[in-house]
Amino acid sequence: MDKTALRDAIDRLTQDISVELADTAAALQEAYRLRHQVYCQDHAFLQGVGGLETDEFDSHARHALIRWRPTGQAIGTIRLVLPQTDEGEDDFPIEQACSDLILDGFPRVRTGEVSRFALSKQHVAAIRETDPDMAGLLRLALLQGALWMSAEAGHTHWLAIMQPTLLRLLRGDGLRFRPLGPLVEYHGKRQPVLAHLDTMLAGAANEQPAVWAYLTRGGTLFSGRGGSDLRMPDGALAAPGRRWVGLAMQGFAG
Q1: pLDDT tops 70 at residue 64
Q2: Is residue 247 part of a domain?
Q3: Does pLDDT of 17 surpass 80?
Q4: pLDDT (tens digit, 9 = 90+) per residue, 109-162?
Q5: How do 157-162 and 111-119 pair as beta strands?
Q6: 38 neighbors 70 (Cβ within 8 angstroms)
Q7: Could you tell me if residue 240 is inside a domain?
Q8: Which structural domain, as residue segments, surrounds residue 79?
Q9: Cα-Cα-Cα-Cα dihedral of 31, 37, 43, 44, to 10°?
Q10: Domain holding 199: CATH number?
Q11: Residue 162 to residue 115: CA distance in whole angstroms
Q12: Rounded CA separation 159/173 (Å)
C-alpha cells in the first residue's frame, strides 16, 4: 500500500473504529468474552471458564477495546500488564516463557507488557469484504489503545511476545521492536521483544507519518519525535525515574 492509500485507509479507520479503555466491569466482561472467542474457540490455544478467558495477570493489567462504530460491537481487545512492584518478579507473562534473567536490570516501573492481542475472526472477515485495506490496519487501533494506557501509566518501554508474522507487519508500519533472545515456544513459535517507546515512535514518524499520527493522536499521547516526551493526562502520575544497566538495552535507550 502506498503512502496515499495508507493515509486514506487510516482516515477510514479513524471514522469507523472507536478505541476505548475497558474501565468498567461491563467493558471488562466484553474483553474477556472476546478473548475467549479468539483464544479458546477460534484458535484453541487456551481454556476458558463460563465463556470468559482470564488469567492471573489480569489482576494487575489494564484493557482496551476497539468497536465497529456502525454496530457498536466490540471486535478487538488488547491488554497491558503493569508491574506490581519496582523490584518484582514474575510480574509479566514474558517471564514465564523466557529465562529468569531476561529482565535483569530492566526498568520495570516504567514498563508494560502488551499481550492478549485479539481480533474477532468473524468481524475482521466481514470488514475485509467491504474494505480490505482498513481491515488490514485493525492492529493499529489495538496499539493505539495500548499506547493510551502506557501514556497514563508513564511508561517508557513495552515488552511483548509476538508472532514473527505480526512483527513483519509492524515493521511495514514503521514500528520496530528489538528481539529479546531467541524464539520461544509459547502457543507456537513466538519472539520475545522490547521497544523503547520514544525510539519506536520516532522511527514511525520518519518512515510512516500517518501511522505515527494515528497511534499518538497527532502527538497528544506521545510525541516520539526525539527525546522522551510522554504526553500524560492531567492527574496521571508517572513512576519515578531510575538508572539501569543491562545488555538488553545497549544501543536502544534512545
Answers
A1: yes
A2: no
A3: yes
A4: 899 999 999 999 999 999 999 999 999 999 999 999 999 999 999 999 999 999
A5: parallel
A6: no
A7: no
A8: 3-233
A9: 100
A10: 3.40.630.30
A11: 9
A12: 18
